[in-house]
Design goal:
With about 160 residues, the protein is of the alpha/beta class. The chain is built from 6 helices and 7 strands; from the N terminus they run E-H-H-E-H-H-E-E-E-E-H-E-H.
């Protein structure tokens, strides 16, 4: 699956430091210890611009530290989601993927049903609808998920 990310990769180092501190605070609040393995998982996760499945992240982490197992990746991703560092994204292909959530603007995805390519885009109009619906039902919206499924230009010309 090919993904086009619209965030700024130049800020990755600064974001990692902020992410590490948020994770440390979250671990303290849960009475858990910070570990070198969790930090490696976080560093690899924040170094990529992709929407990663648990398996894909595991493969990338293994290149850094072969001793880190699949269950450590799974538990780390769960912690990242809990403290707002990551969000789970579903493209309805049966694979859960994770993307950075730290300091990210609200964005949406367009997914090709032929090749699986995904493009992120911003649409303030959708955010305005979220806020209006929240007011209508007396909710304070925190986030939403919006994907458009279709056929990309490359697949249309095949």
């Amino acid at each position: 699956m090919s993904i086009t990310r619209m965030d700024d990769p130049a800020q990755a180092g600064q974001q990692f430091e902020q992410a590490r501190e948020l994770l440390r605070q979250h671990l303290r609040s849960l009475g858990l210890k910070h570990s070198a393995q969790r930090e490696t998982v976080l560093r690899v996760f924040f170094a990529t611009r992709d929407h990663l499945s648990t398996e894909e992240l595991h493969h990338q982490v293994q290149a850094q530290d072969p001793a880190i197992g699949y269950s450590t990746i799974y538990r780390s991703l769960k912690l990242f989601v809990e403290c707002g560092l990551a969000a789970e994204v579903s493209f309805h292909d049966g694979v859960a993927r994770f993307e950075h959530q730290l300091n990210r603007s609200s964005h949406h995805h367009m997914v090709c049903t032929e090749c699986g390519q995904s493009v992120e885009f911003f649409a303030p109009e959708i955010d305005a609808v979220q806020e209006a619906i929240g007011r209508q039902f007396n909710y304070l919206p925190k986030r939403h998920s919006f994907q458009i499924y279709g056929i990309c230009e490359k697949c249309q010309t095949r």
